[in-house]
Amino acid sequence: MKAIIIGGGVIGLFSAYYLHKSGWEVDILEQGDLSDNCSYGNAGMVTPSHFVPLASPGMIEQGIRWMFDSKSPFYVKPSFNKDLIGWGLKFMKSATKKHVERSAGGLRDISLLSRNLYHEFEKESGIDFGLEDKGILMLFKSQKVEEEEIHMVEKATNLGLDAQYLTPEETHKLQPGIELDILGAVHYHCDSHMSPNKLMKGLVKYLEAEGVRIHRNTEVTKKNQDGNKITSVSTKDKEFTADNYVIAGGSWSPGIAKLAGLNIPLMPGKGYSFMVNDPVKKMTIPSILCEARVAITPMNGGIRFGGTMEIGKINKQVNMNRVRGIVESVPKYFPEFKLPVPNEKDVWFGFRPCSPDGLPYIGISSKYKNLAIATGHAMIGLGLAPATGKLIADAFNGEKPLIEAGLFDANRYQ
Ligand SMILES: Cc1cc2nc3c(=O)[nH]c(=O)nc-3n(C[C@H](O)[C@H](O)[C@H](O)COP(=O)(O)OP(=O)(O)OC[C@H]3O[C@@H](n4cnc5c(N)ncnc54)[C@H](O)[C@@H]3O)c2cc1C
């Protein structure tokens, strides 16, 4: 059996990995040259601790407040774009306590499965992508966030996740050489981190060596169908045929789905990151600055700083004001880290594929029985990639999924 995967991000590559492993012949069609996409410059965290979807109570009120601050970590560009309006309405409908409660167990299960699969993959492939299980630290400065975080520890513990509240002194002991200015922290022992750039490069090389064909600079512009089956996909000068197809086009997925008349509500959430290769102090444990929504990850001997979520269009502009927002937030928690503002050319950006209810789309289309959708992972796509790939392969192979994945039904907005 032969499968075609549209999109060579981490979701497409892991779909290829599990399909190939279960005996499929696989072609990946990628519009770029595979030197970059959202899966490279991200913060590299695998986070079972992120069991609350982006669409949650409080996000709307907070989001509106942030919209008036040019350095804020979250921004929705106001526009009469009908996709954005439709997305926003669905987001508001989903941002309820009930939705958060309904989603927690499923998000935990897929994250834990994925983390285990990362370890299996590391052993099996022999690729060193810097996977470490040191957990992540949620650092906070305000009493309001402290209250929220204490509540989250309780919820995490009830979900069976290993989370521990720490005083500033206890937090300091974990990285004794580094000065901290915080009110407290939560250590999510259940989380891991890695170097996404090493993972992506290693995975591409590994798949090609295993016989997966990767077609670079190959943009899918047309889908051909007959009744309830996709028969082929075309680029501007070539047609590709397979038994089954996977849409794994990240933030471009709605356009790809539309080629087959499918509706996948999704908006790009632009984020920025930059590397500091010779930091003033070495860090060993990743952290998230809660109030600033900035992620800090030790990576390849340096440190990666990342953040912001601009919901809007796909474009190549770097908003240096938001990058400054990241830079200025860091010494508020780590006083020794007075970072210079990076040059614009050294700022990486990527587009998180954000579904309106904050949950990924994973599974077979109800309209085409040989088409699967694997996208919408927003802030947790790197972490969820192996589990997503495995769920897609199991669906094509008619095997029982390793977890209950109904929450991620790819047809929920059809
Ligand atoms: C600043 C930042 C920090 C982040 N930190 C984390 C983190 O710590 N942990 C985590 O889990 N996640 C994190 N994320 C999110 C994560 O990076 C994404 O969820 C993930 O990379 C999405 O992967 P993807 O494969 O769906 O999309 P992409 O990586 O964008 O890949 C999609 C690919 O499809 C290709 N494509 C699109 N259309 C076509 C077409 N028509 N034909 C052929 N190819 C096409 C694109 O060129 C692209 O290469 C972060 C994101 C950002 C921006």
Write the layout of secondary structure elements.
Layout lengths: L1 E5 L3 H12 L3 E5 L15 E2 L12 H8 L7 E3 L5 H13 L2 H29 L10 E5 L2 H16 L4 E4 L1 H7 L9 E5 L3 E2 L2 H15 L2 E3 L6 E5 L2 E6 L4 E2 L3 E4 L5 H6 L8 E10 L10 E3 L4 E6 L2 E10 L8 H14 L14 E7 L6 E4 L6 E5 L5 H16 L18
Parallel strand pairs: 1-2, 1-13, 2-9, 4-17, 5-15, 13-20
Antiparallel strand pairs: 3-8, 5-7, 6-7, 10-11, 11-12, 14-17, 14-18, 15-16, 16-17, 19-20
Bound molecules: flavin-adenine dinucleotide.
Flavin-adenine dinucleotide binds next to helix 1, strand 14, strand 18 and helix 10.
List the defining traits of the structure above.
414 residues, alpha/beta, FAD/NAD(P)-binding domain, nine-stranded mixed β-sheet, six-stranded mixed β-sheet, 10 helices, 20 strands, 33% helix, binds flavin-adenine dinucleotide
